[in-house]
Write a structure and sequence with these properties.
- This protein has about 325 residues and is α/β, with parallel strands linked by helices.
- The chain has a single domain, classed as Metal-dependent hydrolases (TIM Barrel, Alpha-Beta Barrel), CATH 3.20.20.
- It has 13 helices and ten strands.
- The strands form two sheets. Strands 1, 2, 3, 4, 5, 6, 7 and 10 form an eight-stranded parallel beta sheet that branches. Strands 8-9 form a two-stranded parallel sheet.
- The longest helix has 19 residues.
Length: about 325
């Protein structure tokens, strides 16, 4: 488990006050990638200690076995239920405030890629009922819904359009991270509700296939959506996880579309050895020239540092609160049912 021993500067009194009076939402994090490892959720205590109120936890992504999605949901829901003194399953907007009042860490779930739908539209509502609150369509490679960002993107398929409509019907947020630009823009054009990029950084700051263009950023904001910035080193720079580097990415997007359309989805994985092994074992999804050994990730303990970096750039407390979680909350209120 990396970064546990790293010391971070104590937050300033202004940052402490911000975290005490703000919803802090990390919209994408990872623990186990396979069943029977629900005990890894104990590491989410690091989020709570860092001042986080709510995390969206990954339960599936296309390169992993499709059946892991339901099995991980069973594991995670059981673990949360048996640790209800510390954690709270988030299913409705009102659950978020209840968890904060009770000083519990709120947890909901996400899915990265539509392979675990098994080409079965009815799976969308099942996952929503189990607590999945956003889903992206393809993970780096093409699938039966859309094109991936590491593949020849042929655009949104007819099944992908059906999934989009079904997600909007049940209240699941549509995410356009990890997919190709053509598919992303077609989703944004077809959507009737706000769409998010849950964990994507601007390509104009660092040119990586996983990052997104100014065109996509503007289209997302025009739809009322939120771009969540991630803390993966190769998407920020030369495997660079300095706080000031992520702050520079955030500032770029804010200057492009305004503070109402920016959030955070760090994409931190607690078992980084498992991540490195998985990346090496799936070179088609993670081309070695773009995903080097020793993939660095920003830790949840850096979130107060991020807030401090934004304040030092002249951001108001109100705008920092939006980026820390209020923008994600707005999307939840608009889309969840």
């Amino acid at each position: 488990m990396a970064q546990i021993g790293i010391q971070h500067p104590a937050p300033t009194s202004r940052v402490r006050a911000l975290f005490d009076h703000s919803l802090v939402w990390d919209n994408h994090t990872c623990t186990a990638t396979e069943p029977n490892k629900a005990g890894s959720l104990q590491y989410l205590r690091r989020h709570k200690a860092a001042g986080v109120d709510l995390v969206t936890l990954n339960v599936a992504f296309d390169p992993a076995p499709n059946e892991n999605a339901v099995r991980l949901l069973a594991d995670f829901r059981y673990w949360i239920a048996t640790h209800s003194d510390e954690f709270h399953l988030i299913l409705r907007g009102e659950d978020i405030e209840q968890a904060r009042k009770q000083n519990k860490l709120g947890i909901c779930f996400n899915i990265e890629g539509g392979c675990c739908l098994y080409d079965q539209l009815s799976m969308v509502s099942l996952y929503y009922d189990l607590g999945v609150r956003w889903m992206l369509f393809a993970y780096n490679r093409n699938n039966t819904l859309a094109g991936g960002c590491q593949d020849e993107d042929a655009g949104l398929t007819e099944f992908g359009r059906q999934v989009l409509r079904e997600m909007e019907r049940v209240g699941m947020v549509v995410c356009a991270s990890h997919i190709g630009e053509r598919s992303a823009l077609e989703i944004l054009d077809a959507a009737t509700r706000p769409v998010i990029f849950s964990h994507s950084n601007p390509k104009s700051v660092w040119n990586h296939a996983r990052n997104i263009s100014n065109t996509a950023i503007r289209a997302c904001a025009a739809k009322g959506g939120v771009i969540g910035l991630n803390g993966i080193g190769v998407f920020l720079g030369e495997n660079d996880i300095r706080t000031e580097t992520l702050v520079r990415h955030i500032d770029y997007v804010v200057n492009l579309v305004g503070p109402d359309h920016v959030g955070i989805g760090l994409d931190y994985a607690f078992d980084q050895e498992e991540v490195q092994k998985f990346v090496k074992a799936h070179p088609a999804s993670y081309p070695p020239d773009k995903y080097p050994d020793g993939l660095a990730m920003m830790a949840p303990e850096q979130l107060p540092d991020i807030a401090e970096g934004l304040l030092q750039r002249g951001y108001s407390d109100g705008d920092v609160r939006k980026i820390l979680g209020e923008n994600h909350l707005r999307i939840a209120r608009q889309v969840w049912k």
